[in-house]
Amino acid sequence: MSILIDNLLFIAAYLLGSIPTAVWVSKYFFKIDIREHGSGNAGTTNTLRILGKGPGAAVMLVDVLKGLAAVQLAFLSTNLLPKTDAFINFQCLLGIAAVVGHIFPVFAGFRGGKGIATLFGVLLGIHTTVAVLCMAIFFVTLLLSHYVSLSSMIASIALPLIIFIAFKHDDQILLRLFAVGGTFLVIATHQKNIQRLLRGEESKTFLFKKKQ
Hints:
Layout: H1 2-17, H2 21-30, H3 44-51, H4 53-72, H5 85-103, H6 116-126, H7 128-145, H8 148-166, H9 173-188, H10 191-199
């Protein structure tokens, strides 16, 4: 029975991640499909550029909460004790399911976003300190460069470095693999952004001032 419950929780995590926030917001409030505009990505950045700061912030918040809620499902497991290595490993698996759901959402034809906000939510639920540090690195890079894609990639590269260097006492192997895998995932989903950055064609995002 416990194995069945864990499997159901894994499926539930995927379904949570599959909630296509940007697609639903764009369709129900603006009568468009965000994936047919801008970069074609169903995520926070494209929503921010096409629909504005309000919808962009709402999409980001819900996508973060999806990842956070997914890892909290581990508390419903009947055979895992919170804070143990096995518990954290299971949280990582639930987090992976949620991120995969965001990228390949069953509720939106398997065409989703890049999973950055959901990945952050997962990390926030598993290791809050690391999540806050990565968020700080993201925003500092964004304020200096104005490139969301570059900021996301640098923060993702910093993720395993922080876990491996600053938190040596942590023995959760799957957490370390999750961090490394998260980095590769972010880089892999940003190939077009990397090409535009190299060509000097990547769009900039200005948080506190209008684009010149």
